[in-house]
Design brief:
By secondary structure, this protein is of the alpha/beta class. The protein is built from 10 helices and 8 strands.
């Protein structure tokens, strides 16, 4: 269960408060694993509040180069050195700011070199009747994984996030049966690039308006292993409720 806090909350004080509440709700879960992705500026301080294996930390972005004259950018090694073991790459909100498939591919390579696990987001902006969105998904996936070997695939988590479902309420999320179909499609094209076994071993998550109200159905019928949760991860109660559902599902 991944919490993507995006550019929230406003201060380190609030971030600590939220994290301590999330820690309380995450602590006793035996099966579901929690990954919190706060703004990079808060990573080091939040990391100090938890030493253990139940919660891991992730960054929301990195730069593709390891070091140099890149004002304002943060490298994979930097986020790793302050406690991140994951990084979200290819999020649609970053793609909307101009990030290209090619850049995302380079970031994936840089993350793997630094030993980070990658939460790779792919998703169409709308679903056309002719299924063209499927070629779009294939392109996003294949360019991000261009240099990723079969051996490195275990460090990749695919987060399928259709843009039309992001940042809304539970009712606007994808239908579980449509999610199921898309997950099968993603595994099928991954099997083309790698092999069937690796494609089926890969963790596929869903993101886009996940709330406690739709989490159960999406997990049961959608054939995903977990969620990338945006707005609902900013409420420890709501995140805890989703986590409970995931924990029971994984039992
Ligand atoms: P949401 O965001 O849960 O608020 O829809 C998901 C995401 O953007 O990762």
């Amino acid at each position: 269960m991944i919490g993507n806090w995006k550019m929230n909350p406003a201060s380190i004080g609030e971030a600590k408060r939220l994290f301590l509440e999330v820690k309380k709700v995450s602590f006793r879960r035996r099966n579901a694993h929690t990954i919190i992705c706060p703004p990079a500026a808060f990573l080091a301080e939040l990391r100090k509040l938890y030493i253990g294996k139940r919660i891991a930390f992730g960054a929301q972005n990195i730069f593709a180069e390891p070091a140099g004259a890149y004002t304002g950018e943060i490298s994979a090694d930097m986020v790793s050195s302050v406690g991140a073991s994951y990084v979200i790459l290819g999020h649609s909100e970053r793609r909307a700011m101009g990030e290209t498939n090619e850049e995302i591919g380079r970031k994936v390579d840089a993350a793997l070199v630094a030993g980070l696990k990658v939460i790779l987001c792919v998703g169409e902006s709308d679903r056309d009747e002719h299924g063209e969105y499927l070629s779009y998904l294939r392109e996003e996936l294949f360019s991000a994984l261009l240099n990723v070997s079969r051996q490195s695939l275990k460090h990749i988590f695919i987060a399928y996030e259709p843009l039309w479902a992001i940042g809304k309420t539970g009712a606007d999320a994808i239908q579980p049966s449509d999610l199921h179909g898309t997950v099968i499609f993603l595994r099928k094209i991954l099997a083309e690039k790698y092999d069937k076994r690796s494609a089926f071993a890969l963790t596929i998550l869903y993101g886009g308006s996940v709330e406690s109200e739709n989490a159960q159905a999406l997990l049961e019928e959608g054939s995903v292993s977990g969620f990338l949760v945006g707005h609902a991860s900013l409420s420890a109660d709501e995140f805890g409720a989703i986590l409970n559902i995931a924990d029971a599902h994984a039992a």
